[in-house]
């Protein structure tokens, strides 16, 4: 598409990057067909093409209306549109740049600002998040549903395994998952050690996704640099870096792009990403004998649209003997989408119900996924167990 960027903005490197992305879009509209918010709301401005026009208008006029901000805020950043787009429009990156400018030109409602502030304050700090999670469990019945749904009924326990020699693998514990689903990291540790790898858990803290996607870009960048500072000095001794949450995996995979204007950290980020793998690329079916269990797999958006890995969980589980139950609409988001379930609770609920309906159509015994957000989201409302696929595999040893 043709663009005419505002003269006050055109010299900025990020605006030039956004302009190059905008110019790739041929406004064909193919992406709207796979956009969950467009499918739910039916408004062109709640689809990728509409949002691309909103960002284009923002960069051309150097101003944006509150109504336009609401359409951009409703985007789940699921990147299903990127998978569908025939022109290779990097929508996720465009949105990140657009949101940075939106923040400078708009004043969101007080409730949204307060929620965003609390999320950024609590979630990345596991020292604060864990005690609050315990407190939340005590007062769970009294809390509003959109908060209650994110609090597990019982405090999960992390199991320990013995260390072995082999390829050196560093497991990132993350922030939310280390508190809400620690057994997932423990399961990955158990599987990797069982398969002969020298795996070690590193408590690296938040990967920066939360701040960055809540438009606190500077705070997000600081968290990303803190992760890099922890891993880079020993990068030569590491064979693989792995995160059990695909949401964190895709954020780390994007570090070099996000830090491209930082001459010091961009090469370090690249060195880390060179060693980054998803657990599904590391775990083999060796030594696993599955029972006759029917499994429905929900592949997170961060995995299929962000990391570009789709079908691998089904392949591994199928190879070791699980019966995979196929389902429709695999490309659609479950409504977790980072903080969407808290900031956009009604839309998130509708997407969850739609996702659960299709997942259980084939009557599976269990639903598995690969991201902490999807796991917590689907668990609340499912009549059958919802697990991380790593937990299901680790159970077989
Ligand atoms: S599919 Fe790609 S090129 Fe077509 S409108 Fe969507 S973003 Fe633009
Ligand atoms: S990222 Fe997802 S919700 Fe946002 S425009 Fe693309 S498909 Fe729609």
Any overview of this molecule?
There is one protein chain. Strands 2-1-3-4 form a 4-stranded parallel sheet. It has 397 residues and is of the alpha/beta class. The model has no long low-confidence stretch (mean pLDDT 88). It has 23 helices and 8 strands. It is globular. The chain folds into 4 domains: 93 residues, Fumarate Reductase Iron-sulfur Protein, Chain B, domain 2 (Orthogonal Bundle); 39 residues, no CATH class; 114 residues, 3-Layer(aba) Sandwich (Rossmann fold); 109 residues, Rossmann fold, CATH 3.40.50.1860. 46% of the residues are buried. Helix 1 crosses helix 6 and helix 3 packs across helix 6. The N and C termini lie far apart (55 Å). It is 51% helix and 7% strand. The chain binds iron/sulfur cluster (SF4) (2 copies). The site of one iron/sulfur cluster has 15 residues, from helix 3 and helix 5.
What is the CATH architecture descriptor of the largest domain?
3-Layer(aba) Sandwich
The total of beta strands comes to: 8
Range of strand content: 5-15%
Put simply, the count of helices is 23
Structural class by secondary-structure content: alpha/beta
Q: Strand order, main sheet: write it out.
A: 2-1-3-4
**Overall outline:** globular
Radius of gyration: 21 Å
Largest sheet entry: 4 strands, parallel
Mind telling me the CATH class of the largest domain? Answer: Alpha Beta
What proportion of the residues is helical, as a percent range? 40-55%
- Per the CATH scheme, the topology name of the largest domain is Rossmann fold
Separation of the first and last Cα atoms: 55 Å
Uncertain stretches of 5 or more adjacent residues: none
Q: What hetero molecules are in the model?
A: iron/sulfur cluster
Whole-number total of structural domains: 4
- pLDDT average, as an integer? 88
């Amino acid at each position: 598409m043709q663009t005419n960027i505002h003269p006050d903005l055109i010299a900025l490197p990020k605006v030039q990057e956004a302009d190059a992305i905008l110019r790739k879009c041929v406004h064909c509209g193919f992406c709207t067909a796979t956009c969950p918010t467009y499918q739910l709301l039916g408004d062109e401005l709640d689809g990728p093409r509409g949002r691309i026009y909103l960002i284009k208008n923002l960069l051309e006029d150097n101003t944006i209306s509150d109504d336009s901000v609401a359409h951009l805020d409703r985007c789940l950043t699921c990147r299903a549109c990127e998978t569908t787009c025939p022109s290779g429009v990097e929508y996720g990156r465009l949105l990140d740049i657009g949101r940075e400018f939106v923040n400078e030109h708009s004043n969101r409602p007080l409730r949204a600002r307060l929620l965003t502030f609390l999320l950024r304050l609590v979630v990345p700090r596991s020292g604060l998040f864990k005690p609050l999670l315990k407190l939340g469990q005590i007062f769970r019945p009294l809390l509003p549903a959109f908060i209650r749904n994110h609090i597990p009924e019982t405090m999960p326990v992390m199991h320990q395994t013995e260390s072995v020699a082999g390829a050196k693998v560093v497991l990132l514990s993350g922030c939310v998952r280390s508190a809400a689903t620690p057994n997932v990291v423990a399961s990955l540790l158990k599987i990797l050690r069982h398969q002969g790898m020298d795996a070690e858990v590193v408590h690296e803290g938040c990967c920066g996704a939360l701040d960055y996607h809540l438009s606190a870009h500077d705070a997000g960048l600081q968290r990303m640099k803190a992760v890099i500072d922890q891993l880079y000095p020993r990068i030569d001794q590491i064979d693989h870096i792995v995160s059990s949450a695909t949401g964190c995996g895709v954020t780390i995979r994007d570090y070099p792009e996000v830090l491209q204007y930082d001459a010091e950290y961009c090469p370090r980020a690249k060195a880390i990403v060179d060693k980054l793998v998803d657990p599904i690329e590391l775990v083999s079916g060796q030594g696993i004998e599955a029972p006759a269990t029917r499994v429905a797999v929900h592949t997170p958006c961060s995995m299929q649209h962000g990391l570009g890995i789709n079908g691998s969980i089904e392949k591994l589980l199928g190879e070791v003997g699980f019966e995979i139950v196929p389902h429709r609409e695999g490309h659609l988001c479950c409504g977790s989408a980072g903080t969407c379930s808290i900031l956009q609770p009604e839309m998130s609920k509708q997407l969850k119900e739609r996702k659960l309906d299709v997942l259980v159509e084939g009557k599976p015994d269990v639903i598995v996924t690969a991201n902490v957000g999807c796991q917590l989201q689907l668990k609340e409302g499912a009549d059958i167990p919802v697990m991380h696929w790593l937990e299901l595999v680790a159970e077989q040893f």
